[in-house]
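LOG
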Amino acid sequence: MSSKVLMDLYGSLKGRGCPTVVSIFYLVVVVVVVVVVVVLVVVVVVVVIVVVVVVVVVVVVVVVVVIVVVVVV
């Protein structure tokens, strides 16, 4: 699907009379931007997952400590 979009973009740029080098440059820019956005989204998702896991672990530890303190006292 993404290759079709890139080929459509390439065709539209070429159709406007842009030189092939300029068309290829624009394609490279589009690919780089897409890759950067995908990497950023993956990093954000990983960070969110790590934060959620840390929060869950902290909550479980606090609950266990409270239960132990209540049972011992």
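LOG (cont.) second protein
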Amino acid sequence: MRNSAPYLGSLLDHGVRVLNYVGDADYLCNWYGNYALTIDLKFNGSVEFNNQTLKPWVFQGKEVGQIQNTSSMTFLRIYEAGHEVPYYQPKNALAMFAKWITNRAF
């Protein structure tokens, strides 16, 4: 296994949008560690990203997670989801993927 985190900054600097999503009940890759990795990334937009804070992610009128994002980098914590977010929260995961692939605001 190899750490791919160092490549994320380069991808972001080359215009590739990055989505880091994690279930808050994931004990393999916990959300605290994923968030720490995300805010520690070095890329051209890292100052803008780190000036943001986690805010509620609302879907169908209910808070289902927390999000921090800019146009290129998105961190999304999904409530009551384990390691396989689509298994635990299929509707929320589908909404997340649909918004991501169509580049619509969360």
